[in-house]
Amino acid sequence: MAALPVFRWRLAPDGYATYRQLRARSLRPGGQPVAAQLERPRRRRGPLIAYLYRVDLAKPVRPMTPAKWAALAKANAARRICPQCRRDAGYVIPPSLGTCAPCAFPEPSSVIRSA
């Protein structure tokens, strides 16, 4: 097994790109293996590593099909529905709460104090 070429951070030659850089150009790795890696040194821990792919072997991103658009819309709609009251919250329900704000923080009922 051959070792990957390793480049220092910001010193990769032209023709290589990370997955995010490919995505910004509307490209995808397209099944090619990792061609090289970047290493960014850190003081107290191991280096940060980013994998590089060859741009000339990258393929264009596949377009979204109507079925994918429908599935994405359905998934986003499910994130807006409160599991407790079953209403559309009008916003994406935060996972930290798990329910909409009215269900997570109910109004205190007016307590009548007897004297």
What does this structure look like?
The protein contains 3 helices and 6 strands; from the N terminus they run E-E-H-E-E-E-E-H-H. It has helices at residues 19-24, 66-78, 101-104; strands at 6-8, 16-17, 27-28, 36-40, 48-54, 59-60. The model has no long low-confidence stretch (mean pLDDT 91).
Annotate the secondary structure layout.
Elements: E1 6-8, E2 16-17, H1 19-24, E3 27-28, E4 36-40, E5 48-54, E6 59-60, H2 66-78, H3 101-104
Parallel strand pairs: 1-4
Antiparallel strand pairs: 2-5, 3-6, 4-5
The helix content is 10-25%
Mean pLDDT: 91
Structural class: alpha+beta
Largest sheet at a glance? 4 strands, mixed
What's the number of helices?
Answer: 3
Strand neighbour order, sheet with most strands: 1-4-5-2
Number of strands: 6
Beta-sheet strand percentage? 15-25%
What is the 3D shape? Answer: elongated
The H-and-E topology, N to C, reads as EEHEEEEHH
Low-confidence stretches: none
- The value of Rg in angstroms is 25 Å
Question: What is the distance, rounded to the nearest whole angstrom, between the alpha carbons of the first and last residues?
Answer: 85 Å
